[in-house]
Design a protein that fits this description.
single chain; 324 residues; alpha/beta; Rossmann fold; 8-stranded mixed sheet; 12 helices; globular; binds 2-acetamido-2-deoxy-beta-D-glucopyranose
Length: 324
């Protein structure tokens, strides 16, 4: 090995200092969550990237699914790193590192939006968070908008990222996308999707959906794969709230809509979607038309995961909205 040039030797301590300055605190933990309807104390797993101190305003991210985990939202720390407020992600109960409740599978009166609003309020209280920004991706934005229409104290900004304003519009968009699939794949979905029969044609059609309308990157980023793995391992939440078909909601979210209540969202709101998104324009339009202080940004080269698909542009957009 050649000796290091002198200049590099001099630079080394400086580089180390920079690395140390850039090091971000990461705190993981659990808050207990009493669920009265089952008389049980559950645990919500959370991760704080950055430092949560009294008086700072964190960005709290709500993951989708329902029934995946939060790992794929950790990348949003691109936006909070270097800011005073940290990013907080958490696994909603029923999956990931939070309490699983397989014994409640199929109980639609247990798995409701209200349950997850209670969990969010509990997390805010236990972490002693007074002011915060809230981002929800996909189902997370359904949860976030359902929460925001209650005008919660302390909410400063809302981001609805690839989320529908109603389940009916969402299904309308899924069917319109499906109708543009190659004929063989469309037929497989028409034949097998409702009963979720995993024939090779059906698997191919779902893979086509996922690579065109869930995430257009090949391969998928690992955290997105991990989310899918969690969802497959414990289907309690996804099946009970959404159902096993992509094109028909049979779970407790059937008929869900916030459209009529959207004028109650008074905080500045950013709505985003992608051109190839399962959340097509028609599903986000009610947000844009009815939330008083709203900005809509559409990512032309993205589907459902713009924070990976157009990472830099997404982060710049989010940063500008939250901090300027
Ligand atoms: C809840 O749990 C406590 C402690 O195990 C028990 O005493 C109580 O009867 C339970 N209540 C219901 C409604 O199941
Ligand atoms: C379903 O959940 C509700 C609400 O938590 C509960 O009251 C009910 O007993 C549950 N039903 C069954 C069959 O477990
Ligand atoms: C979309 O991606 C393609 C290929 O990477 C690139 O050429 C194009 O400029 C991008 N368009 C936008 C709007 O970002």
């Amino acid at each position: 090995m050649r000796p290091l040039p002198a200049l590099l030797l001099i630079l080394l301590p400086v580089l180390q200092l920079v690395v140390a300055l850039n090091a971000v605190d990461v705190t993981e933990g659990y808050v207990s969550f009493e669920v009265p309807s089952i008389n049980r104390t559950c645990q919500t797993y959370y991760k704080i990237i950055g430092t949560l101190r009294p008086g700072v305003r964190p960005l709290i991210a709500l993951h989708g699914g329902p029934g995946v985990n939060s790992e794929y939202l950790e990348i949003l720390s691109d936006v909070t790193n270097g800011r005073t407020g940290p990013l907080i992600v958490y696994d909603q109960i029923g999956n990931g590192l939070s309490t699983h409740l397989r014994e409640t599978a199929g109980n639609k009166s247990f798995w409701t939006v209200d349950l997850f609003i209670s969990e969010l309020k509990n997390l805010l209280a236990k972490l002693n968070i007074k002011e915060y920004d809230l981002l929800g991706q996909s189902w997370g934005g359904m949860l976030g908008s359902s929460f925001a229409i209650q005008r919660p104290r302390g909410l400063k900004h809302l981001v609805l990222f690839s989320s529908p304003a109603s389940m009916d519009l969402w299904i309308q968009a899924q069917i319109a996308l499906k109708n543009k699939f190659p004929e063989k794949l469309r037929d497989a979905l028409d034949k097998y999707d409702e009963d979720h029969i995993p024939t090779p044609e059906y698997e191919e059609a779902m893979a086509y959906y996922n690579s065109h309308h869930l995430c257009t990157l090949d391969p998928f980023p690992l955290p997105i794969i991990h989310g899918a793995e969690w969802a497959a391992r414990d289907q309690t939440v996804g099946d009970t709230m959404y159902g096993s078909s992509q094109f028909k909601v049979t779970g407790s979210l059937a008929g869900w809509s916030v459209i009529d209540q959207l004028p109650n969202i008074k905080v500045p709101t950013l709505v985003t979607n992608g051109a190839q998104d399962g959340a097509q324009d028609l599903v986000v339009l009610p947000f844009v038309e009815r939330i008083p202080r709203v900005k809509w940004v559409k990512f032309q080269n993205s589907s459902h995961m713009a924070h990976y698909e157009e990472r830099e542009k997404f982060m710049r957009t989010l940063s500008k909205f939250l901090y300027h």
